[in-house]
From TrEMBL:
Belongs to the monovalent cation:proton antiporter 2 (CPA2) transporter (TC 2.A.37) family. Residues 576-592 have a biased composition (Basic and acidic residues). It is found in: Membrane. It comes from Algisphaera agarilytica. The chain crosses the membrane at residues 6-25, 32-52, 85-106, 118-140, 146-167, 179-203, 215-236, 248-266, 272-291, 303-323, 329-351, 358-377, 389-414. It comes from the Bacteria. InterPro entries: Cation/H_exchanger_TM (IPR006153), Na+/solute_symporter_sf (IPR038770), NAD(P)-bd_dom_sf (IPR036291), RCK_N (IPR003148). It is a multi-pass membrane protein. GO terms for molecular function: antiporter activity. The keyword Cytoplasm does not apply. This is CPA2 family monovalent cation:H+ antiporter-2. GO terms for biological process: potassium ion transport; proton transmembrane transport. Residues 576-602 are annotated as: Disordered. One of its GO terms (cellular component) is membrane.
Length: 602
């Protein structure tokens, strides 16, 4: 009779090794994901499995191949971990559960706040990357359908890896971080049509039959989405209301999990990807009334889902295959790391993003994403790509996910060096918003870099006090607002020496930098001191950890945002407590002196 305990013990061993290697990776200042994938690689069929096979061959003096690759003498614990069929099942379950948690965190409101420009940017990046990949693939005598499939696979990046890496470096609010976030959110939602397109590429029959089948698939997805919306909008609120008097959180969470896993099963029965079904259900569930509670309660489970997914991806990796096909892997990896960042940089320039930030965002996104595994599995099932090509995709995915923490770390430096190189070649200009008359006849003026809430506050106060204020910002709308307020203003990147010359930084009394991006602030400080060594520089530090760094770079005054918030909170609390205590004292005093009132001695 089959037992679940041996496979369960195998999963326990996998999670334990993933925890150990993930902790070691974190201690070495790397992403824990590197440890998770390494654990899967070591315990998978291509490392542990080969060792078991070699050991059995030594014992029996026979070569074990084909169906006998896992001999019957192998314990069930190891069999569950090295059996390719088991690994495939674990990988499919892992990606389904992970896409459920990613869908819960997907924010329609955040996408709306980014605006149509961000959506257009993301769509353009996907289309251009697919077109470029298809052209390159066809140069290697592969089919057009394989090119389109690989284009969709390589067009996607990993939100779940890039954003935590940016967060660890406090760069989510940087210019290149926000630009990357907009593209990543569009990529997340684009996986839905991409799965259907790749499924259509594997269709057989006449062109008309394939088109009709594809239209039918889109219709099924549309109906599936309608069902999810109805459930979330009408069924979920009733379940929440029914369960509210009991205050039992577990029932609500169980209902949400049943709904999501049921969506995965329903998608499977409809001929769609189960992972896609879980994702669609989760993104609508994430907008429901129980979403905040659900994210909190599912949080610990997300750790298991993420670990299982990346470990399962590691299990699919084959070091021997990579070594045997090193030149194919090397060429594919090199093309990806060159083409994809170049596409992101080009798209950024189309939307007037400075070279520095567009290059940095491109470097951050130079990897194959989590959703790419869903597309690759769909392409393999539809025979759009071969088994060898699937192995190449898995190898590239693993290698680029390994490289991602390093790419994110290197991105700001790459952006700065790339921009300097383009300037040397005469390809980088200040920008289309430059007004050469802005800096004319200026002396003892204040240059304010960044016109967000902090920049507006300081610029308005200095302007009202009679100072001449020059505002520099990348956003044309912010510059228009500054000009409407009567200030001089210029669109552009303040880290550009040419722009600093235009605002007469050498004769300025002070330079105020209100940017949340500490790397960009440091670049502005360095360039400003090169042109005006005596200018007084006041800079905002979003996080306390960067105060000393900004000071050493050359800032005269650094405003510590975290320390100031702590001071304001403590002061507000002191005033509130003091006011409440005085009010209570007055009430007690009034009661004690009122007719018939009693004092404590009475």
């Amino acid at each position: 009779m089959p037992s679940i305990w041996e496979p369960l013990f195998g999963i326990i061993v996998l999670l334990a090794l993933a925890m150990t290697l993930g902790s070691i990776a974190e201690r070495l200042k790397q992403s824990a994901i590197v440890g998770f994938m390494l654990a899967g690689l070591l315990l998978g069929p291509n490392v542990l499995g080969r060792f078991v096979q070699w050991f059995q061959e030594k014992q029996s003096d026979t070569v074990i191949t084909g169906a006998d690759a896992i001999p019957p003498q192998v314990p069930a614990v190891l069999r569950a971990m090295i059996d390719p069929a088991q690994i495939t099942a674990i990988a499919d379950l892992g990606v389904t559960l992970l896409m459920f948690t990613i869908g819960l965190e997907f924010s329609w409101s955040r996408l709306k706040r980014l605006g149509l420009k961000a959506i257009a940017t993301g769509v353009m990046q996907i289309v251009v990357t697919m077109a470029a990949t298809t052209a390159i693939v066809m140069l290697f005598n592969l089919s057009f359908t394989a090119g389109v499939a690989l284009g969709g696979i390589f067009a996607l990046s990993s939100t779940g890896v890039v954003m935590p890496a940016l967060a660890r470096r406090s760069e989510v609010d940087s210019v290149h971080g926000r630009f990357a976030l907009g593209i990543l959110l569009v990529q997340d939602i684009a996986v839905i049509p991409l799965v259907l397109i790749i499924a259509a590429l594997g269709g057989t029959g006449t062109v008309g039959q394939v088109v009709w089948h594809t239209v039918g698939q889109f219709g099924i997805v549309a109906g599936f989405i309608v069902c999810c919306v109805v459930l979330v909008k009408y069924v979920v609120p009733r379940v929440v209301a029914f369960n509210a008097p009991t205050g039992n959180r577990e029932v609500t969470v169980l209902f949400a999990i049943v709904l999501s896993l049921g969506a995965a099963w329903g998608a499977h029965k409809l001929g769609l990807s189960p992972a896609l079904g879980a994702f669609i259900a989760a993104i609508f569930l994430g907008e429901s009334a129980i979403a905040p509670r659900l994210r909190g309660d599912v949080g610990p489970l997300k750790t298991i889902f993420v670990t299982m997914f990346f470990a399962s991806i590691g299990m699919l990796g084959d070091p021997v295959w990579i070594v045997q096909h090193w030149w194919q892997v090397g060429v594919a990896l090199g093309i990806l790391l060159l083409v994809k960042p170049t596409v992101v940089w080009g798209v950024g320039r189309v939307f007037k993003l400075a070279h520095r930030h567009a290059i940095a965002a491109g470097v951050c996104m130079g990897q194959v994403g989590v959703f790419s595994f869903v597309l690759a599995r769909s392409a393999q099932d539809g025979q759009v790509i071969s088994e060898q090509m699937f192995s190449l995709v898995v190898s590239i995915t693993i290698l680029t996910l390994f490289l991602t923490p390093y790419l994110v770390t290197f991105a700001p430096t790459a952006g700065a060096k790339g921009e300097r190189l383009l300037r040397r070649w005469g390809l980088a200009k200040i920008g289309s918003g430059v007004d050469a008359s802005v800096g004319r006849e200026l002396s003892s003026h204040i240059v304010v870099v960044g016109f967000g809430p902090a920049g507006r506050a300081v610029a308005n106060r200095m302007y009202q006090s009679g100072s001449t204020v020059v505002v520099v910002d990348l956003n044309p709308q912010s510059i228009k607002a500054a000009r409407d307020a009567g200030m001089r203003a210029m669109v552009g990147d303040a880290s550009s020496p040419e722009l600093l010359k235009q605002v007469s930084i050498d004769t300025a009394e002070a330079l105020v930098i209100t940017l949340p991006d500490h790397y960009l602030a440091m670049a502005v400080i360095v360039e400003a001191l090169e042109l005006a060594p005596k200018v007084q520089i006041v800079v905002r530090a979003r996080y306390h950890r960067y105060v000393d760094l900004l000071t050493r770079t050359g800032a005269n005054v650094v405003i510590d945002e975290e320390a100031n918030v702590g001071d304001r909170l403590s002061e507000s609390l002191r005033v509130k407590v003091s006011t409440d205590s005085e009010r209570d004292h007055e009430v007690i005093k009034e009661e004690a002196t009122a007719p018939g009132g009693k004092t404590e001695t009475e």
